[in-house]
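Exercise 7. Given the encoded structure of a 261-residue chain, write a plausible sequence.
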């Protein structure tokens, strides 16, 4: 009986081995599917060729025909990636309108298709951050409470507690983020434009970046409690409290004085 049991066990071994291999292959496929997201825009060689033509006509006077940059004029774009181009050109900061401490945002000078073409060509010059996917920047998938903690730890000292912006040194400023698109906010964290530091995935994970976007999206919907008072916390709230209290003290003093006379 023991010999027959062993034989039955050995006969089923190939089936068990096949099932184990199938399970292993399924697991590898699942891990591959949940790997790092790729750029949200499919870029072709045709896009890159058209982007090179646009770059030569509109950007090469400062950055050079090979995008290597010019000392004291414009930085090299080799290795900045598609995300930097999409942010700078998509927010209208580039082409720069005039020299100054920093490039302010304005209406874009190119269509989104042209921006994608410029981004495709610059991305072909060297590896760099890609344009984030729609899933990476979807506020509905983020945790606004966790995003608030991350934002106040890493961003509030320049952009303010709710992303309303603030002044920096030497004529520079941190812009308001309340009207920025989720994609541009994510790209700014990836690329560190102007005075902003780079927050790569080791500093702030992609999930936390999305949480920050969710928090800013919540703030852009307005103040649910009524007047925002600038949304700068106890400073404005305390000022209004003192003004109201001082007004009541003055009013009561006048009333007591009038009654006494």
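Solution.
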């Amino acid at each position: 009986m023991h010999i027959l049991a062993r034989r039955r066990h050995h006969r089923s071994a190939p089936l068990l081995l096949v099932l184990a291999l199938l399970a292993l292959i399924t697991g590898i496929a699942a891990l591959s599917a949940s790997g790092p997201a790729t750029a949200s825009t499919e870029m072709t060689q045709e896009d890159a060729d058209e982007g090179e033509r646009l770059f030569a006509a509109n950007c090469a006077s400062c950055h050079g025909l090979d995008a290597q940059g010019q000392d004291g004029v414009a930085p090299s774009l080799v290795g900045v990636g598609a995300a930097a181009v999409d942010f700078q050109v998509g927010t209208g900061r580039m082409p720069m309108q005039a020299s100054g401490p920093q490039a302010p945002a304005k209406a874009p000078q190119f269509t989104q298709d042209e921006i994608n073409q410029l981004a495709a060509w610059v991305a072909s010059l060297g590896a760099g951050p890609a344009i984030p996917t729609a899933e990476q920047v979807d506020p509905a998938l983020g945790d606004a409470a966790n995003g608030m903690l991350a934002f106040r730890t890493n961003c509030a000292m320049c952009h303010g507690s709710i992303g309303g912006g603030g002044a920096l040194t030497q004529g520079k400023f941190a812009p308001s983020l309340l009207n920025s698109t989720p994609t541009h906010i994510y790209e700014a964290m990836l690329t560190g434009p102007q005075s902003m530091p780079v927050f790569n995935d080791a500093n702030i994970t992609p999930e936390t970046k999305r949480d920050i976007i969710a928090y800013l999206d919540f703030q852009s919907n307005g103040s649910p409690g009524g007047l925002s008072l600038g949304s700068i916390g106890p400073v404005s709230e305390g000022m209004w409290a003192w003004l109201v209290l001082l007004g009541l003290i003055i009013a009561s003093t006048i009333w007591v004085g009038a009654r006494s006379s």
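Remark. Residues 30 and 100 are 50 Å apart (CA to CA). Students should compare their own answers with the one above.
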